[in-house]
Write a structure and sequence with these properties.
Elements: H1 3-9, H2 16-27, H3 29-33, H4 37-44, H5 48-57, H6 63-74, H7 91-112, H8 115-126, E1 130-135, H9 138-150, E2 157-160, H10 163-171, E3 177-182, H11 189-200, E4 204-208, H12 214-217, E5 221-223, H13 238-258, H14 260-273
Parallel strand pairs: 1-2, 1-3, 3-4, 4-5
Helix pairs in contact: 2-4, 2-5, 4-5, 7-13, 8-13, 9-13, 10-11
């Protein structure tokens, strides 16, 4: 089993401090490879002996040996496609691998995400005067999906995947507005600049991004459920699905927090758009 997969598999068995190290590595394995033990310890907010202990828990000789094995585990599968898929895989193999790896990432994200942070994010969203969702590249699809969910909620909501529009929206923001930034890496320079601009205009910034990333540092609240999918090398797949599920979690929390009367509002929306569809066909009819 590859080192990164081994860390994910054993996430629940680590001590609290060891788990901090694991989460930093899962969020940014490439950064970990090029970091000193002191830097990694600082990123995880633990001691250097804790990092060494974590490495030995994975049956390595120490931090240098661990970094070598981690580096070897990253370049696998088919570059620019998927780390789990081999070049000679047929339909049966790559179908199974994509589904299985995505399910594993969702399970890992479920165990990793901090429900206290989810609760805080839902509180902020339900009190917002208006909400905007921003994403670039693959994350723009997630931002549009968020718009599709939150536009039902009787609150001004927008979505932009153009950096100029994002900046103009931030300039027009104010206290009470919430900007949700979505980035798998947290290293996109333009989004980091947008977060800073939003903060300067007193908007509250929520980021779906790894902890300790440049984007996280510029945000008020970070929702981190990192997926070991290096999108510098591979096509965004499981990371995008995890982001969408987090959006579903926030939308569900938003709905429940608004109470039973709000359910009636959602019911009215469903009723109004019912005529836009053909009636369901009973497949059991002769």
């Amino acid at each position: 089993m590859k080192t990164l997969e081994l860390i994910q598999k054993n996430l629940g068995s680590f001590s609290k401090s060891e788990r901090k190290v694991a989460e930093v590595i899962i969020a940014s394995p490439e950064v970990a490879i090029h970091s000193s033990i002191a830097t990694l310890a600082k990123m995880a907010e633990v001691s250097e002996p804790t990092v060494n202990r974590f490495c030995r828990r994975l049956d390595t000789k120490g931090f240098p040996d661990f970094k070598l094995l981690l580096a070897q585990s990253l370049v696998v599968g088919t570059p620019y496609v998927n780390r789990h898929v081999n070049q000679d895989d047929g339909p049966e193999a790559y179908n199974a691998k994509i589904f299985e790896s995505t399910i594993a990432c969702l399970d890992s994200a479920k165990n990793m995400i901090d429900t206290a942070v989810i609760k805080r994010a839902v509180e902020v969203l339900t009190r917002a005067d208006k909400i905007a969702f921003f994403g670039l590249g693959a994350s723009s699809a997630v931002a549009h999906d968020a718009l599709n969910k939150f536009i039902r909620f009787n609150i001004p909501v927008s979505c932009f995947d153009d950096i100029v529009m994002q900046k103009m929206s931030c300039i027009n923001s104010r206290k009470g507005d919430v900007i949700v930034l979505i980035s798998h890496t947290g290293r996109t320079k333009a989004l980091v600049e947008v977060a800073q601009l939003a903060r300067e205009n007193n908007a509250f910034v929520i980021a779906l991004t790894p902890n300790h990333s440049p984007l996280a540092e510029k945000s008020n609240l970070v929702l981190s459920a990192s997926v070991p999918e290096d999108t510098d090398i591979y096509m965004p797949m499981a990371s995008r699905i995890v982001q969408m599920v987090i959006i579903d979690v926030l939308a569900t929390g938003f709905t429940l927090r608004r109470g039973p009367k709000f359910i009636e509002h959602l019911k009215r929306i469903k009723t109004e758009i019912k005529d836009s569809r053909f009636d369901k066909v009973d497949l059991n009819e002769d």
